[in-house]
Prior knowledge:
By secondary structure, the chain is an alpha/beta fold. It is built from 19 helices and 24 strands. Helix 15 links the parallel strand 16 and strand 17 (about 435-440).
Amino acid sequence: MGIIITSGHIFTLKFSPLKKYFLLLLIITVSFIARAQNNIAPEIKISSKIEKIEGVKYYIHTVEAGQTLYSIAKAYAVNSKDLIFENPELADGINPGQLIKILYKETKKQASPKSEVSSASPFIYHTVEKQQTLYAISKLYGITVDELNKANPELSEGLKIGQQLKIPQSNTKVDLPSESKAVESDKPFIAEIKKAIIQPQSKVLCISLLVPFNTDEIDSVKFAKNTRTAIPSKSYAAIEFYEGILLAIDSLKQLGLNLKLQVFDAPNDSAKIAEVLKHNSIKNSDLIIGPFHNVPAAMVAAYCKKNQILNCIPYAQQNKLLLGNSYAIKVSASSGTQVETIADFIGKHYKKENIVLLHNGLLKEKSSVEVFKEKAKPLLGKDSLVEVIFKTSGAKGLQAKLSTTGNNIIFIPSNDQAFVTSLVNSLRIIKKDYQITLFGMESWISFDNLDINTIQDLQLHIPSSGYVNFSAATCLSMMKKYRSKFKTDPSKYAFQGYDCGLYFLQELMKAPKSFSDQLIAHPYNGLQNNFKFVETAVESGLENRSVFILQYKDFTLSPVK
């Protein structure tokens, strides 16, 4: 039966499709949490020993038995990463008696300057901070972006740091929470969801989660000793995605979500997926989320089509599994969609520049090359796109096509790390003679041999299905809850699990007549993934076509506006 979660209780467990090791997996997770909680007690006292080191004040904390890096960081209101930054030796662990320096913070008692309340005004006022967006501010106060725009007509000229915005009080409490309370509170976010819900959800939703825990590969000997390495590293993506889903369920329970959740181990193994699909209980699902890998995803999508079950596919990139299957919903944009987004971006922002499509003439590049040409040529104009095949032209042939007076916009639609690395190094050498803005593919994010200074000099842009604004209030709120529940920071898999759970489950709570039409009609901005679904063909599934264009700048990746 798997794991069952109802609105009244988080867990009512009946195991079987997840083998005994998953039960152990949950036990060890709970064990880790319980142990961490035990280690927090007794309460950690802030050290009275303060020293100035190289002109900077630090607490000097002596580690006591039972204290963990997390508990110490929490006691001093800092991040664990900050502690390791100041004390690199902590990366190898901590020991009783060890001295740790922690950045000293002056205590200030003053009112928050970020918001002001006036009882005589229908508005409260918010001062815009760095990296805040209209969307983030609207969520902070539980209002919509449209309400924010109506109250502040000057926003038509853009949002500026330091700008004071009027927040309608009809939708907010007069006792506006302080900054810290705003981070902790779910209320703005819950208020937004409440507005979206058409009717209370009375039906018990049956959701099946198929993720690759790879339980057969857990080392039982190490597991018995409570050793974390007992779990294969490839299982962590599934565990973290699952944890993100659980956190979303926690939030939606406050809105009356009544849910039966079944969790199945779905590794990248066709035989094991076939076994999972034999379970009778899975046929009763209102929605199946998963699996992760392409072949299992195709098998489950076909099963869902046959049994008329909605299927959310989190990671597979192939669009062909959507063809003729109106029950399939793909969360990640395909490579073709990402290339179209790049072409559209270049067409809008660099139309008058020298546009170069650079590739190696390989069959595996052909699809992306053709998609780019088909999309870009109408935007750029006839004969405005220069195509260079590097294996025949070489560096000299490329230089012959570059402008010496204007900007050269070069797009390389390749996922071949060796080829990309060689090309980027070639561009680095000639960069001194040309102005170059480089566009690549999402896979480049994982190419750790690309020199960061070089790709910054080349103004590298890449498409991506997700981006997390870690300074957003809603993101901080989620991270705080995640740390509290799972004793670690959320990964990209946890964020995606959270976004998928929150979006798809709240849409199901509306009891739709047509779930696909509803998804198309209700785009949504999550913490990492935005959802903008489009039907790929008649009687076919939906693809999320929301793509970020990110740029390497100041040694980090951030969205280009």
